[in-house]
Each structure stands twice: as structure tokens, then as C-alpha cells.
Write a structure and sequence with these properties.
seven-stranded mixed beta sheet, single chain, alpha/beta, 322 residues
């Protein structure tokens, strides 16, 4: 699900819950990205309606995902089964099909409307013969897999699960011996604008980051079965019995002037921020945000020449011992 944010920006994963992922716009936690996933606390979201936006956001990040998958391919050779846990509309699932032409891909998500988009995308890209989907909530839905996974990818879906340690153990249990678990979690908050934008007090995005971090903490603590855990991902992977942890961060650098798709992503992301923020920013910052989101204002995101997208997403991997 692409939704969660920055997946802090995007969401992903499941429903009832990602949308993280996949956006700052959808998912909303620190350090997220687009493309997948959904959010637990967004049970009222119409995923069918959100689908096109989630898909477009994930496509904007395709270059980042392609580099991440190329990095995985250096260590994961000729996987038979790849599982995208929290796939959203399937943009990344289909990139896996392209990167690993011999693999069967299973996209798993809590949203059937988003999985319909994933199947349609696989059909358009000519990979439907080795592409399937499973609808249900992580991690229990993984019990429906016919075979252990050679590669299980979870992009900003884990942080929507109350007990992340238990979920990692469940993910690890679905791996074949020698199989790899890859988590996209963490990274840096996104940047869309210069520090001084000529209206309001400079440093708006840094102040938004602080509010978003608090929002994310409240989202986590409000999840069913929430268990606090130190988010040392390599240590958590090792604690799940996995070996050979690796970490790499991938950058999305789309400088100004922004493309229409990049500009739309920034507008959507900050619109979601504005909807979520009821306190934490002062009246001046809220007024600045409102101007940025007003299509009729010359200083808005819709018209400014200095809008860009700069995001960093981190991938952690580990291997199930043979």
C-alpha cells in the first residue's frame, strides 16, 4: 500500500491499516516513502479511490526502487518466489518481476482494490503468468503462501504492526533456508522546499518534521497489541534468527523545476500533513501551509519554481540460515 509517510511519507502494508506506502502523503510516519502499504488507523479510507494517487506516487519513486532492487540482486540470485508484503497497487511488485525474470511474484496487501490494480499492472507489463496476489492482514496472511519465500520484501509495512518483533519472527518463518528478508524502514524526512521560502518563518519543514514524529509515535502506540521496541533494525533482524545483516540507503533526487507528477506528489503530501495537524504548529506556520496549498496563491506549491523532491529511504536485509 503505498501510502505511509515521509511513507514519512507513504503507506504500506495492510489494511485495517500503508498506505504508508508507500507517501508523505499517505503514510505518515517518520521516514517513509511511497509505493506501498496502508495504515491501520485509516479504516475509512476508500482504497479504490486512493489507488491512482498511490500508484502515481510509487511510480515517481521508481528510480529509487530500481536501485534498491539492483542492490538486492547482487546478493539474491535467481530467487524462485518473491513476496511483496504490503504491496499496495503493485508498482514495486512489478519491478521485482522485471528485475528477476525467473521469479514468481506474490503481492500481499490488506486492500483488494489495490491488489486489483496490481494484477492489472502485471497484465499490462506481460508478467501476469508469474504474478499472483493474496488479500489479508500481515503477518498472519503469509500463512496462505504455498511455498517459503526466497525473498520477502516489506516496504514500510512493518511499522503498521503493533508488535514489530513478533511480526519479524513471522516474516522470517516464511523464508526458505538461505532466503532473504528485506525491510525498507527509516531513512530521512523528505525535503520539498528551500529553508527560506519567502513567506512565513524560515524552517517550516523542520518544524513539520517534529510534529510528524510525534504523530508517528501516537500512531504506533495506538496500534492493537503495540509493543515498544528499540528500532535497531539489524539487531531486530538478528533477534529473529537471521544472519548477514546489510543496510543501504537510497536517494530520490528530483531537483527543481519539478515535473507535474513530482509537484502533484508534494501537494498531496503536504495536504495530508495539513489534514493531520491539529496542534503542534503555530498560527503563522498553519497560515503558511494554507498559502502553499492554495492554487490561486502565486506563492503556492502549484506555482512556485523552487519545488523539488529529495528523499532517502533505507533498506535492511538479513538471511535465514541454511
Amino acid at each position: 500500500m503505498a501510502h505511509d509517510h515521509h511513507e514519512q511519507n507513504h503507506d504500506h502494508g495492510q489494511h485495517g491499516q500503508n498506505g504508508d506506502h508507500g507517501c508523505r502523503g499517505h503514510d505518515h510516519g517518520p521516514g517513509h516513502g511511497p509505493g506501498q502499504g496502508h495504515h491501520h488507523d485509516h479504516t475509512d479510507i476508500d482504497w479504490a479511490e486512493m489507488g491512482p494517487m498511490l500508484e502515481s506516487s510509487a511510480e515517481l519513486f521508481s528510480s529509487l526502487y530500481e536501485r534498491a532492487l539492483g542492490w538486492l540482486a547482487q546478493e539474491v540470485t535467481e530467487p524462485g518466489l518473491i513476496v511483496d508484503a504490503g504491496s499496495g497497487p503493485g508498482v514495486v511488485s512489478c519491478l521485482f518481476a522485471e528485475t528477476f525474470p525467473g521469479a514468481r511474484i506474490v503481492a500481499v496487501d490488506g486492500s483488494e482494490p489495490l491488489l486489483e490494480r496490481a494484477r492489472a499492472r502485471a497484465e499490462r507489463q506481460g508478467v501476469a503468468d508469474r504474478f499472483s496476489t493474496i488479500a489479508g492482514e500481515l503477518p498472519d496472511v503469509l500463512d496462505e503462501l504455498d511455498y517459503p519465500a526466497d525473498l520477502l520484501w516489506a516496504s514500510r509495512s512493518l511499522h503498521h504492526l503493533g508488535d514489530q518483533r513478533a511480526a519479524l519472527a513471522a516474516f522470517a518463518a516464511r523464508l526458505a533456508p538461505g532466503g532473504t528478508l528485506a525491510l525498507m524502514e527509516g531513512g530521512l524526512p523528505p525535503r520539498f522546499l528551500p529553508r527560506d521560502i519567502g513567506i512565513g518563518r524560515p524552517g517550516l519543514q523542520a518544524r513539520i518534521d517534529a510534529v510528524e514524529a510525534e504523530w508517528f509515535t501516537q500512531m504506533r502506540t495506538g496500534l492493537p497489541g503495540h509493543v515498544a521496541v528499540t528500532e535497531d533494525w539489524p539487531a531486530l533482524l538478528a533477534g529473529a534468527g537471521l544472519k548477514h545483516t546489510r543496510t543501504h540507503t537510497f536517494l530520490l533526487d528530483l531537483p527543481a523545476p519539478a515535473s507535474e507528477r513530482a509537484r502533484a506528489y508534494v501537494v498531496t503530501s503536504l495536504s495530508h500533513v495539513r489534514e493531520r495537524i491539529t496542534d503542534g504548529l503555530d498560527a503563522e506556520d498553519l497560515a503558511t501551509l494554507d498559502r502553499l496549498l492554495d492554487p490561486d496563491d502565486d506563492a503556492s506549491l502549484h506555482r512556485r519554481p523552487d519545488v523539488f523532491v529529495l528523499e532517502a529511504h533505507t533498506v535492511h536485509t538479513a538471511v535465514r540460515p541454511v
